[in-house]
Amino acid sequence: AKNMNVYKHVLTKENSVLMNSDDPKRWAKTIKLIFNNKKKYLHLKKQAYQTAKKYTWLIRVKKIISFINV
Questions:
Q1: What angle do CA 49, 60, 2 make, to 5 degrees?
Q2: H or E, element range at 46
Q3: Neighbouring residues of 48: CB distance < 8 A, sequence distance ≥ 6
Q4: Distance between CA atoms of 61 and 70, rounded to whole angstroms?
Q5: For position 58, what pLDDT does the model report?
Q6: Are 60 and 66 in contact (CB under 8 A)?
Q7: Are the C-beta atoms of 54 and 46 separated by less than 8 Å?
Q8: Deepest in the core among 20, 35, 48, 53, taking most CB within 10 A?
């Protein structure tokens, strides 16, 4: 993902690869490196899934309803 401050509370080095580059060749090289490193790939995949489960629409709705009912 593009390294932007707005995502830093969700995207970390544990669940994603953050880059400051707009160079498509560098992105392609990084993606290939991840896919060629099975251990790194599986770790990122697992952590990304765990993070994503915290940000479902259902969880978001529950937080909004809880906020409204306070």
A1: 50
A2: helix 38-52
A3: 15, 16
A4: 14
A5: 95
A6: no
A7: no
A8: 48
pLDDT digits (tens, 9 = 90+) for 3-57: 666 677 888 889 999 888 788 999 999 999 999 999 999 999 999 999 999 989 9
Residues 6 or more apart whose Cβ sits within 8 Å of residue 15: 44, 47, 48, 50, 51
Backbone angles phi, psi at 15, to 5 degrees: -125, 5
How many of the other CB atoms lie within 10 Å of CB of 69? 6
Predicted pLDDT of residue 57: 94
Joined tokens for residue 14: 């544990």
In the chain, the amino acid numbered 19 is M
Query: Which amino acid is residue 59, in one-letter code?
Result: I
